[in-house]
Amino acid sequence: MAAAEPAVLALPNSGAGGAGAPSGTVPVLFCFSVFARPSSVPHGAGYELLIQKFLSLYGDQIDMHRKFVVQLFAEEWGQYVDLPKGFAVSERCKVRLVPLQIQLTTLGNLTPSSTVFFCCDMQERFRPAIKYFGDIISVGQRLLQGARILGIPVIVTEQYPKGLGSTVQEIDLTGVKLVLPKTKFSMVLPEVEVALAEIPGVRSVVLFGVETHVCIQQTALELVGRGVEVHIVADATSSRSMMDRMFALERLARTGIIVTTSEAVLLQLVADKDHPKFKEIQNLIKASAPESGLLSKV
């Protein structure tokens, strides 16, 4: 079967260019909410370029945590229709960005091939300050062992290691994809974005470390804003203040981020007792994760 040709944005009775449009570009009317702004895009521009143009025109008004649909005004129907992704702009057209009003359900399915683990700032200088730090070290190490067994990439950051020390010795970083120093609170550094782009089919990030209300929260929100599904491991994340931790997890859960546990994550990743790695994962979880003071503060 021949490959399908990309859909083309075209309106009847319009030229390939337009008055005032630079050579090699196509005039497009960009509509958002009550606004409509004429602009232009290169001939053959696709979905991603249209999104970039919407952001350049309306970025200060677009809530990146919402889901949107791009629509094209179709003369044939006299109304807007949903725009498929495989298209190229060839003629003058009118498009709009529509926020979805419905609440989208996050299913939270995890598969090893589409998952990356993020280990955030599990450093020596935090040991005396973070509540139940020994427990989250233990669970974090269990998660990293599971990642090695299942071949899941791991990205590790260290907040200002020159002053706060390296990752604690109990955490075995053998085989991790990246260990990066940072001063930004979020783990979404340029190097991390490049690494994610190099891993085909990434859909989910399993996130754990410290502090829940700062680096974990800001990382989770940035990832969700980029369309990545985030799973925060509650028994492997903590803060100096249990109140900060509790309200951060509540806030994140309300945004559709999944708050889960280490055992739930590992068993969801194998999914079947006949999985070739099930026995190794089972050995990891034979002893339950510590039921520390974190339990009543989730």
Task: Explain the overall architecture.
The protein is an alpha/beta fold. The chain has 2 domains: 25-99, Phosphatidylinositol 3-kinase Catalytic Subunit, Chain A, domain 1 (Ubiquitin-like (UB roll)), CATH 3.10.20.90; 115-285, Rossmann fold (3-Layer(aba) Sandwich), CATH 3.40.50. It contains 8 helices and 13 strands. The chain has helices spanning 47-58, 133-150, 161-164, 190-198, 212-225, 242-254, 262-270, 278-285, and strands at 7-9, 25-32, 35-42, 68-74, 79-82, 87-89, 93-99, 115-120, 154-159, 178-182, 204-210, 229-238, 258-260. It has a 6-stranded parallel sheet with strand order 10-9-8-11-12-13, sandwiched between helices. A 5-stranded mixed sheet has the order 3-2-7-4-5, covered by helices on one side. Helix 2 (133-150) runs antiparallel to helix 8 (278-285) and helix 5 packs parallel to helix 6. The longest helix is centred in the middle third of the chain and has 18 residues, at 133-150. The chain is elongated, with a radius of gyration of 23 Å. The termini are far apart.
